[in-house]
Amino acid sequence: MLSVERENPVWNFKTGLGVNAMVMIDTNFFCSFYNNFDVNHQIAKELFFDLDDDEQIKIPYVVAAEIAVSKDSIRLLNIAKQLSQRFVTNNDEDLEYISKFAQERDSSLKANDFLILALCKRYRAKLLSFDKKLVRAVLSL
Amino acid sequence: MNISSTEFQQNVGYYLKLAEAGNSIQITKSKPKHSIFRLVFQENKKASKKKTSKQIALELLEKYAISRKGESGLEFQNRVRS
Predict the structure, then answer these.
(1) Minimum Cα–Cα distance from B62: chain A residue
(2) What is the pLDDT of residues B20-51, one digit of tens each?
(3) Which 3 state secondary structure label does DSSP give B29?
(4) Does the first or last residue of chain B, that is N or C, have fewer Cβ atoms within 10 Å of its Cβ?
(5) Contacts of A131 in chain B (CB under 8 A)
(6) Within 10 A of B45 (CB to CB), how many other CB atoms are there?
(7) Largest CA distance in chain A
(8) Does the predicted interface ipTM exceed a cut of 0.85?
(9) Phi (first) and psi of residue A27, to 5 degrees
(10) DSSP characters for A89-117?
(11) Sign of torsion over alpha carbons A55, A71, A129, A32
(12) Which of A28, A53, A82 has the CB atom closest to B73's CB atom?
């Protein structure tokens, strides 16, 4: 089952970026990675080990906000802060991009998905997520 | 320990290890000027202590991982992201 998922092109996060590339972590991936009992925990670890050592891992502010409303929010937020140091925030440029993207393409992405998508675009970052719709959108950038 | 520059050139790795282990090493050279070089070992603590994001993430996983059954990360995200 896991190997089938890995062979799916949706899970190919390699986008040909150079050294010191940035990797954004989505809420679902973060929760799966740091919960030993999560159904996607193992594959999250495998995908994580595939990252290059020099890649910078960043957490969008919107992801931190979602983590903040989880049952284990205190512990998970503490991890997120230590990992990302500074949560990555959106700006006006992102809003313009999102507005254009949403008008040009018939997308069913949610508002927070768009915020993450815009960050990936601006920082030319990879995305670690099990949300296939969002990963597809990032790969199409 | 005194060694010649020729001896040093032929066994650089060996003498660097000795210096790292705390040995005092002097390299003598006769041409063009008679001179003495001292090998000083100093650890760059700032560089060797800098951890990668990946190392930090794995350390955090070992220290603070939760063990909660039930809702998966993806289910949680679908619930809170609207």
Answers:
(1) A34
(2) 889 999 999 988 889 999 998 888 776 666 78
(3) strand
(4) C
(5) 74, 77
(6) 8
(7) 41
(8) no
(9) -55, -50
(10) ---HHHHHHHHHHHHHS-----HHHHHHH
(11) positive
(12) A28
Return the number of other C-beta atoms located less than 10 Å from residue A78's C-beta.
13
Instruction: Give the SS3 label for residue A131.
Output: coil
Nearest CB neighbour to A48, from listed B57, B74, B76: B57
Read off the tokens for A55: 């890649």
pLDDT tens digits, B56-67:
999 999 999 999
| A56, A69, A79: residue with CB nearest B60 | A79
- Taking the alpha carbons of B77, A81, B67, A22 in that order, is the dihedral positive or negative? positive
Q: What residues are paired with A57 via a beta bridge?
A: A23
Is there a contact between B82 and A110 if contact means CB atoms under 8 Å apart?
yes
Q: Cα-flanking dihedrals φ and ψ of residue B75, to 5°?
A: -65, -40
* Contact flag A130-B54 (C-beta cutoff 8 Å): no
Six token digits for residue A48? 């994580």
pTM over 0.80: no
Enter the DSSP assignment of B5.
Answer: H
